[in-house]
Amino acid sequence: MRADRLHMRLADRARTSFAAAMSTMSGIARWAAHSPMSDPAGHAADLAAEPADVPALARIVQGVLVHLGWLDAYGLDASRLAGISRTTLPVADRLADVLRRDPRPLHEPRVPADRSPGTCRDYALLLCALLRAKGVPARLRCGFAAYFGPGWEDHWVCEYRDGATWRLADAQLDPPIRARLGAAFEPADVPRQAFLTAGEAWQACRAERAASETFGHGDEGTGLWFVKVNVHRDHLALNGRETSAWDGWRSAPPAARRMSDDELALLDALAADPERPLIERSPDWQA
Q1: Most buried of 76, 84, 157, 184, CB within 10 angstroms?
Q2: Per-residue model confidence as pLDDT tens digits over 182-194
């Protein structure tokens, strides 16, 4: 068996085992434990050495990552990063890349050119890992943000427990990006009206409180079908599957972008209760 296939099989087995373990945990404790993607592995000591408050942890993430879609905000030439994959890395691999580029402690900000390039999900995942390392229940949420422009843009954030309340944090919103967007709120406390989880977006569209065509990813995908993709991704993330086959939505042909009545019923149920035990379903274009 090829090494890459063996690695994928072992990774799938680890994710399946973790999802089964999560189903036996009670209450919010299920989100205080690392998932295979958030586990820092050999870098646990690096995370343990960092401060515990959420704004400080968000600043740490901002100081080690740079967003591939916002390079001009930092005066970086996009051609220097051509060919870099947008695939979300496990935190252990991400930290290895961060420290390879600059071996200083994580709380020491890097200049943008020396940061590890990633996407919104990498920001959310690294912040989630830092919070879990401090014993704070945290999880990734897939949904749509209203602060990037007109409409609701496909986006990932970190949701963390603050006492009896779940709060949203978007570590991607560092000073240069906040200045571009004119965002006045704190990245560690994103207003609920500024971000809808995929389930909330689905319910709003189904009840005709929102137009489905305003939800999506630029010109690459919009509408209720795209909301459906994120409903599945949010449900999977809440069960320790922060990446999945649903990330390949760009490859879905038009014929696969339809929904049956049975599927609508399943999506209604997932949207209403995304935290339910894992329901595995392959994307339509892989069926």
Answers
A1: 157
A2: 999 999 999 999 9
